[in-house]
Every structure is written in C-alpha cells, then in structure tokens.
Amino acid sequence: MSGPATFGDYGSMNSKISAVSVSKTYGSGDRKVVAIGDVSLEVPDGQFLSIVGPSGCGKSTFLRILAGLEVHTAGHIEIMREREDVPLLNVVFQEQSAFPWFTVRQNVGYGLRMRGMPPAEIKEKVDYWIAAVGLTDFEQSYPHQLSGGMKQRVSIARALANDPEVLLMDEPFAALDALTKTVLQDELLSLWEQNRKTVVYVTHSLDEAVTLSDRIAVMSARPGRIRQIFEVPFERRRDAHEIKKDPRYGELVEMIWSILHEEVVTTTKVQ
Amino acid sequence: MSMPEPSNPKRIVLTPSAKEQKRNQLDPSNPVLLLSPALILIVWELVAQLGLIDVRFFPAPSTVAHTFWQEVKSGMWFYHVRMTLMRVLVGFTVGAFAGILAGVIMGLSSFVRVAVYPLIAAIYPVPKVAIFPLVLLILGIGEASKITTVIASCFFFLAISAMSGVLNIPNVYKDVGKNFGASRAAFITTIALPAAMPAIFSGLRLALGAAFLVDVSIEFVSAQEGIGWLIWHSWELFSLPLMFVGLLTVSFLGLLLTFSLDFVEEKLVPWRT
C-alpha cells in the first residue's frame, strides 16, 4: 500500500491508471463514428484528475470504458490493483442513479450487500457515510422524497461506502442548481482531502475542475484526444473560496477556456 | 378609436385554500365520494315511485334492496358470491403469477423473448371467452374448464406488462448493478423485479377486470351457480330486481378487489409517488 501521495512528484511513482492510445468507434463502414480517438493518460495513485472537454468529445465514454461499462475498440488500459478486499473502481453517475425502490440506507449499503459483507459491518459503514454526507435525518426516505442535491449525496455515499481503490465521477453535479453545486463541491473537496483516493472526474465546468483537481486533462472535440494537461497550483487542503481570489485561478480557467473555445470554433467551421 | 380605459389596479392574493389542496386526493374517508351514487339512488327511487319510469325494467332501489335481503337471508347470495370469487381469485392468482414469471423471463432473455413473443402476440388479442368451448371439450364441464379460461385471460396481461417493465429498466440502474458487482440473481431481485413493479401492477389491474368479465360470461353459459348465473337466471325468470342484485354484486366485488389491489400496491411499491 502506498502512503498519501506527495503532489508534484507523481512522475516518479507508478501510475494507478495508465491508458495508452485508447480509442472507441461505433458502427462500421460509412456509418462509422469515432467517439474517442487515441487517448493516452496517466493517473498517479491518490491523484484527483479531471477531464474537461467540449460536449460530445467522448469524456464520459472514456470514463465508462475505465469503469468496464463499455469496451474500447483499440488501445491499452492498465489499472494497478493493490488490495483484494475492496473493489477496484466505483462510479458516481449523473443524477437519478439512486434506486427509487430503496431507501437512502439501502442505497448507500448496496455495494456492501452485493459484496456479501456481514450486516453489522454494513450498518457501521452505512451509518458513517450517511452522516458524512449529511443525510442522517433522511436515512429512511426514498429518493423521490429528496431534492436533486440530496439524491446526488446518496450516490456519492454509495460509492464511498464501498471504499473502492479508484473513484470515477461522471458529471455528478451537472444537473444541480448553482448554489447546491457549490455546496456539494465544497463537501466533496473536504471528503476527498480526508481519504485521498484516486479520482477521475469528468465535468464540463472549468470552475469545478480547477477547484477540485490536482491535474486537468483537456480533451479536443470529437473524436476526442487529450489536447493538453494542466497542473493545478493550489495546495491541499484548499479553501474553495480563497483560491478563487488567487490570480492564478483566473489565469488557469482562462487558459483552459481558450483551448476549449478554439476546439469548439474549429469543429463548427469544419461541419 | 379611443384608448381602453385604464382599470383600477387590484391586489390579487394567491393562497391555496385547504379545499384546493385536497382537490386531487381520492381520500376514501371523503364523504363526497358517496355523493354521486347516493344522488342516483335517490333520483331513481323518486322517479320509480312516481311512475315516471317503467319499473318492469328499472325496479326501484327499495325493491332491489328487498330482493337482496331475501337472497342474503336464504344464504343464496353468499353461495353465489363464494363461487364467483373462488373462480376469479384462483384464476387471477394463478394466471397472474404464471404471467409475471413468463414476462420477467422474456424481459431478461432476448432468446426466450424472440422465441415466445410471436406466440404471445398472436394469442393475446383472441377473446378468452372464445376459447372456452375448446377448453370445455378438453377439460369437461366443471370448475377446471372455467378456472383455466380465467387463468388464460389473466396470463397475457401480466406476461406483456411484466416483460415491458423489465425491458424498460433505465440503463443507469443496470450500470449501477454492474459497477457494484451485482450477480445475475441479485440483478433480478434488486433491480429487475422492483423496476418492473409499477408495470406489473398496471397489468394486475387490467387482469382483474378481465377475470371478472370472463368469469361472469362463462357463468352465463355454463354454470348452475355464481353471480353470472344469477344474472342470466333472473333474465330467464324475468326477475329484474334479482338481475340488479347480480349487477350490483359484480360491481361491488370489483370495487372491493380493486381497493385491495391498491392496498397491496401501497405496501409492495412504497416508492411510487
């Protein structure tokens, strides 16, 4: 087991995830669509990496391939498995992935039940994670009784309770209103800084990416490739509001934005 | 053309009254629910007593009530109700369970679906009463042929609704199951069945109506007991009060079973808003 990662020197460490020339095409012949073309990416152990890109660039597809929910058509992916007692990866999906027929408790404990963990142990972990995401008063509620933000807390708690080696997050806050989004980002930031799992986080919000990540991979328009990778210069533990006052924050957002803008404009001209 | 006169501004206050908040709720304790049946009975009684309608065809509610009471006293009413309920409930239960089983399997396995669905789709639209003579030839006059026909009428509703329930599981739930390592068996019990529940209950509602329809029709032609027989027999006797007793009994039983189904649904599908 590796200790907490020291940020900045990951180049010398083994990568947790290593993707080489991964691509995915749908269909064949004239109807062939290249969803992602040639993505190469290294994610060091314990790093929070965000992938941003124009819509339709295949960033979610890449995440689904990592999760084993879709199969790439070419390329090579390696994920380092260090522990046999915990799952390798779990996904926090976009909104509405909490099972409507389970209560908050049953949803959060779902992965643990599937692993056949003893009920007493499940109870302990579920209690802890429900409290950690602030849903203790709603543990017997069904998702339809919760707000959008609370449903997303359920999904996050369900993934974290399962204690995977890698956490994959697919635009988890995309469907939420701006205020709820900010609150959940802050909470995710502090939860993550406590246990520092390897995270791959797909988003189209540059603010979100800069606030949360150690590194940001910017994808090109379809067929997606990695255009550029940025280091986020802010120390851990971060204060989401303080870093916004730092001039480097705006510069970073501006740099990434200009690349994305260029990507979008170029593709629209071609079409 | 002159400009329209400016009207005096008025403050409009929008507050929902308790009445408006309750408007869409079918609360069983709400006395308004009894309003329309009560009104019909009162008007009916009045026009019958006043001789405004032909009581040979529309006997006054008081006459029907009297006949009903005599049937209850003699025990015949309970006997007929018991026979009809037995046929409907046994047929409905067996047909529904078999249909749910078949529907869930068709939903889960595309092989079974492709193999069986054409057959189901071909038999489904055939009125099940129409196959009763055939069933009668095979199983003979008795309970087996009647119940089998009721089973057949329920089976298809559930097979089709359970199948579409399983087929329409949102992909994200399948992804969650896969990502959290749900086995095939766990997928069925924790995802496929609960997800199909609302569709299954829609099917149960349709099947319950069909079970009554088919059973009463069968009792018309091939029974010596049951509410269907009572209605048919009262036609033969030209006893209109008795016929109304039969019709109201069917309606009452249907209502009772539908409410029971609502109650079971509330217990089994608590997540449905």
Structural description of this entry:
The complex is a heterodimer of chains A (271) and B (273). Chain A contains nine helices and nine strands. With 271 residues, chain A is an alpha/beta fold. The longest helix of chain A is centred in the last third of the chain and has 24 residues, at 247-270. The N and C termini of chain A lie far apart (49 Å). Residues 1-12 of chain A have low confidence and may be disordered. Chain B has one domain (75-272): MetI-like (MetI-like fold), CATH 1.10.3720. Helix content of chain B is 73%, strand content 0%. Chain B is built from eleven helices and no strands. The termini of chain B are far apart. Classes of the chains: A alpha/beta (271), B mainly alpha (273). The A-B interface holds A 64, 67-69, 87, 89-91, 93-94, 96-97, 99-102, 110-111, 114-115, 142-144, 158, 162 and B 170, 172-173, 175-176, 178-183, 186, 190-191, 194-195, 197, 269-271, 273.
Task: Please provide a brief summary of the model.
The complex is a heterodimer of chains A (271) and B (273). Chain A has 271 residues and is α/β, with parallel strands linked by helices.
